[in-house]
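Predict the structure of alpha-glucosidase.
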Amino acid sequence: MCNTRHKMKSLQCLMFAVFCSVAFGDTVVLTNTGKEDGSNLKLFTEWWETSVFYQIYPRSFKDSDNDGSGDLQGIIQKLDHIQDAGIDAVWLSPIYKSPQVDNGYDISDYRDVDEIYGTLDDLKQLLDEAHKRGIKVILDYVPNHTSDQHAWFQASLKNDSVYADYYVWKDAVIVNGTRTPPNNWLSEFKGSAWEWSEERQQYYLHQFSVAQPDLNYRNPAVVNELKDVLTYWLDFGVDGFRMDAVFALFEDAQFRDEPPSGDTNSGPEDYGYLKHIYTADQHETLQLIYDFRDLLDKYSANLSYPRIMMTEVYSDIATTMLYYGTYSGSRKGAHFTFNFWSFILGLQKGFTSTQLWGSIYNWFNYIPAQYTPNWVLGNHDQSRVSTRLGPENVDALNILISILPGVQVTYNGEEIGQENGEVTCEQGYDPQAIKNCSTFNQTSRDFERTPFQWDSTVNAGFNEGAEPWLPVSQKYLETNLESQNVTGINSHYNIYKQTLQLRQSFRNETGYFVLLSSYANLFVAERILSSNNDDYVLYYNVGDEAVTPSKYIAEANATVVIRSSNSAYNIGDLFNYNGTLLAREAVLVRLDK
Ligand SMILES: *[C@@H]1O[C@H](CO)[C@@H](O)[C@H](O)[C@H]1NC(C)=O
Ligand SMILES: *[C@@H]1O[C@H](CO)[C@@H](O)[C@H](O)[C@H]1NC(C)=O
Ligand SMILES: *[C@@H]1O[C@H](CO)[C@@H](O)[C@H](O)[C@H]1NC(C)=O
Ligand SMILES: *[C@@H]1O[C@H](CO)[C@@H](O)[C@H](O)[C@H]1NC(C)=O
Ligand SMILES: *[C@@H]1O[C@H](CO)[C@@H](O)[C@H](O)[C@H]1NC(C)=O
Ligand SMILES: *[C@@H]1O[C@H](CO)[C@@H](O)[C@H](O)[C@H]1NC(C)=O
Ligand SMILES: *[C@@H]1O[C@H](CO)[C@@H](O)[C@H](O)[C@H]1NC(C)=O
Ligand SMILES: *[C@@H]1O[C@H](CO)[C@@H](O)[C@H](O)[C@H]1NC(C)=O
Ligand SMILES: *[C@@H]1O[C@H](CO)[C@@H](O)[C@H](O)[C@H]1NC(C)=O
Ligand SMILES: CC(=O)N[C@H]1CO[C@H](CO)[C@@H](O)[C@@H]1O
Ligand SMILES: [Ca+2]
Ligand SMILES: [Ca+2]
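Done. Here is the predicted structure for alpha-glucosidase.
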């Protein structure tokens, strides 16, 4: 096993790692495409493979007309910030026409923009302005269901000859004279997944809220409609899609009851009560994802760069990988499927160096070599990383995911270390959470959706003073972009920006080695560029006590390139292996040759 001192090991250890099995925390050699095989380096040639994607939550980003909600013109006003940060692409959470029962995840017209956000013309302008700055634009795509206000559903209710089978309708089962749903399936929002329609005299399926009927993907007309929607937006000029909740597209054709999960925390009405073997990750769902990919590849064939898709799946890690495509690579799926495992599901506050190691290694261990890794710290459904893992870890984590190979994803606000906001149940909008105020603090996703903190003016510069749809966090005077950009040489934002700049030089690499090590509280990630042997090493003290790197690592001559905001090092300093790294301090060095 590879217990050589860090500096010595690079190449020797590479030879070793191919042959020896890896124990948690040991130095492990990886490549950009996966684990262990150093000879199998791949050049990332497509734009998205090395891009930084920035998720914008439009309603909370920037309110241009002071009506309380962020909008497309607001995003246009802030494109300079996105460019300044060094971001390559943005993806917008849903902006489609919607009754907003579920914050835009209930769509009533797939081809139009909701008036909260603006118009199709505004979106066109946003695309033009972004493209002018070299920034690509990804739209959310919500195929799991429509709004019950959607014209298709309204027609389906009436048994319209064209739309009758657009949704999943089933007859009631009469038990002892009482009407009951066709099976035991549960909604993610609690209770039966079936709702009786007096009008149609049948039940319809809704895996989410009653107002979000599931589309019937077994009807080829529905599949064609949804493919047409993709083509419509591609023609409009978007660069790709982020596909929401795709695990739930198909259900079992025989509508079999699901077995109990055995989860003792779930009551019989709770989604977790059943094991979702007939409503999630169905074989047909994967085939459809692969078909969507074919559509994108065909569409892109004559274009100067590929249009892409990314999928949102919270399945187990082996199943998640199937959304990238088959293990053999015979069929491709998403360009990438979000890695929620490494930094969201895999880590908790107080994590150890070895847990961090394992959390990253896990993704490399499962991802087939032909697919591109991706690294995600947070999103609109998760407590902000600053709050979830601690603000003192934000710089280290931003630097870390930037030097790992592949795609980097930033949720708006992570670049300034924004923490969760303060929202009461009465102010909240998260449909599941506001149903029960006594559990709102634990369940609401409103906390991570409060307005972006731009500066120290009224409402943090989100707008001109109108009451925002969700309150601006009280922490905005301490944490805002302007103060970090202007005064903070060593601020979260400047560290983020420096890291993205450095990342540019990793782009055209024919491949590189990544080494992960864990020595007590000291986490080490090393990246060696193959073109010029530039060797970058991140030393990150994950613990609460100071550590002396030379206790674990042989001395070298190394220059500090980037460091966390709690560090006493300056850029350009010689790194002192005999000195101490403070608790949560992270220092990225380049080894002198
Ligand atoms: C940050 O400051 C620089 C230099 O003054 C300026 O060019 C840039 O636009 C600022 N960025 C933001 C997001 O304010
Ligand atoms: C139907 O009614 C009979 C007689 O009351 C009872 O034994 C049986 O359990 C009932 N079946 C169900 C499914 O409730
Ligand atoms: C609509 O069609 C379904 C399936 O054919 C049928 O069961 C139902 O009774 C019809 N509803 C009405 C109101 O005609
Ligand atoms: C791409 O270009 C080729 C050659 O001009 C043409 O035959 C083909 O139809 C084009 N494909 C698409 C999807 O436009
Ligand atoms: C709300 O949550 C509390 C705590 O879990 C529970 O006791 C109560 O029954 C819930 N109320 C409703 C209406 O579901
Ligand atoms: C929710 O959190 C707020 C802020 O910490 C607190 O004031 C409130 O009492 C909490 N509500 C409940 C029901 O726990
Ligand atoms: C990477 O390669 C592409 C294509 O050869 C080139 O356009 C681009 O400028 C290169 N980027 C860097 C950072 O060298
Ligand atoms: C660091 O550089 C100095 C001056 O060039 C040299 O004498 C020394 O041996 C180097 N140390 C290491 C560990 O390479
Ligand atoms: C660091 O400590 C080692 C062992 O105590 C010593 O040999 C070395 O000279 C020290 N290096 C520096 C730069 O002080
Ligand atoms: C993973 C997930 O639940 N995705 C979306 C699918 O639809 C529901 C209901 O609209 C949304 O809440 C989810 O965000
Ligand atoms: Ca507005
Ligand atoms: Ca479905």
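The two ends are 26 Å apart (CA to CA).
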